[in-house]
Specification:
The complex is a heterodimer of chains A (118) and B (113).
Chain A: E1 4-7, E2 10-13, E3 19-25, E4 32-38, E5 44-51, E6 57-58, E7 67-73, E8 76-81, E9 90-97, E10 107-109, E11 113-117
Parallel strand pairs in A: 2-11
Antiparallel strand pairs in A: 1-3, 3-8, 4-5, 4-9, 5-6, 7-8, 9-10, 9-11
Chain B: E1 4-5, E2 10-14, E3 19-25, E4 32-38, E5 45-51, E6 56-58, E7 62-67, E8 72-77, E9 86-93, E10 102-103, E11 107-112
Parallel strand pairs in B: 2-11
Antiparallel strand pairs in B: 1-3, 3-8, 4-5, 4-9, 6-7, 7-8, 9-10, 9-11
Classes of the chains: A mainly beta (118), B mainly beta (113).
C-alpha cells in the first residue's frame, strides 16, 4: 500500500520556539494532504486541508497563523507550530489521499509526530 | 465539521468471539466511510471502506454494515484475536465537498486471551 512518512516522530521544544513537522508521500503523488491533531484517548481532529500549490484550508477554530501549512510539492507538506506553548503539546498526524482513478481515494496516514512543549 | 460519534467507548471480548463496534454519523450527505485501527502511538491503519451505494462489505475477518436510514455504521470482527486490541475509528466524508474525513470518538477494543 501507499506509504506516508512523517518526521520527526518525536520532538521536544521550549515554549516560544517554532517546530516544523514534515509529511511525505513516498510512492505516490498527493495533491491533497490533511493534518490532524489528537489528544490522549481522544479522536483525530481535522485541523486543515493542505492543497499543493495553494493555500491550506483550515477548519473552524484552528488558528492559521499558529499552525502554518505549506504544500510545496506533490509529495511534501509541512506543518509549522509557531511560538509553541505547552497547550500545543499533542500528537500530530498527517494523511494523504491517492486518487488511483477512484472517485474517492483511500486515505493513508503517517505514523504521527508527538510534540511536547516544555 | 460533521459530528461522528460512537455508542461504546470501550469494548472487551474473549479471544475467538466476534466483536461489533458501532458508529453513528450525523451528515446525511456523507457518501464514503472508512474504518481505521489505531495502535498506541501510531497512525491510523485502514481496515475497510464502504460507499453509500452499498449496505454491506466484507473483508478478511471484517465486515462493515451501513444503514443510511438511521445513519449508522458497524464494524464486525470475526474470531477476534489479541492482535485486534486497539482503538477503532470510523471516518466519514462527502466526496462532493472536498473529501475531508471526519472521525468518530473511537472505541477501545480489548481482547482477553
Amino acid at each position: 500500500g501507499a506509504v506516508v512518512s512523517q518526521h520527526p516522530s518525536r520532538v521536544i521544544c521550549k515554549s516560544g520556539t517554532s517546530v516544523k513537522i514534515e509529511c511525505r508521500s513516498l510512492d505516490f503523488q498527493a495533491t491533497t494532504m490533511f493534518w490532524y491533531r489528537q489528544f490522549p484517548k481522544q479522536s483525530l481532529m481535522l485541523m486543515a486541508t493542505s492543497n499543493e500549490g495553494s493555500k491550506a484550508t483550515y477548519e473552524q477554530g484552528v488558528e492559521k497563523d499558529k499552525f502554518l501549512i505549506n504544500h510545496a510539492s506533490l509529495t511534501l507538506s509541512t506543518l509549522t507550530v509557531t511560538s509553541a506553548h505547552p497547550e500545543d503539546s499533542s500528537f500530530y498526524i498527517c494523511s494523504a489521499r491517492t486518487q488511483r482513478g477512484r472517485v474517492t481515494g483511500e486515505l493513508f496516514f503517517g505514523e504521527g509526530s508527538r510534540l511536547t512543549v516544555l | 465539521g460533521e459530528s461522528v460519534g460512537l455508542h461504546l467507548p470501550t469494548l472487551s471480548v474473549q479471544e475467538g468471539d466476534n466483536s461489533i463496534i458501532n458508529c453513528a454519523y450525523s451528515n446525511s450527505a456523507s457518501d464514503y466511510f472508512i474504518w481505521y485501527k489505531q495502535e498506541s502511538g501510531k497512525g491510523p491503519q485502514f481496515i475497510i471502506d464502504i460507499r453509500s451505494n452499498m449496505d454491506k462489505r466484507q473483508g478478511q475477518r471484517v465486515t462493515v454494515l451501513l444503514n443510511k436510514t438511521v445513519k449508522h455504521l458497524s464494524l464486525q470482527i470475526a474470531a477476534t484475536q489479541p492482535g485486534d486490541s486497539a482503538v477503532y475509528f470510523c471516518a466519514e466524508t462527502n466526496s462532493n465537498t472536498g473529501n475531508q474525513f471526519y472521525f468518530g470518538t473511537g472505541t477501545s477494543l480489548t481482547v482477553i486471551p
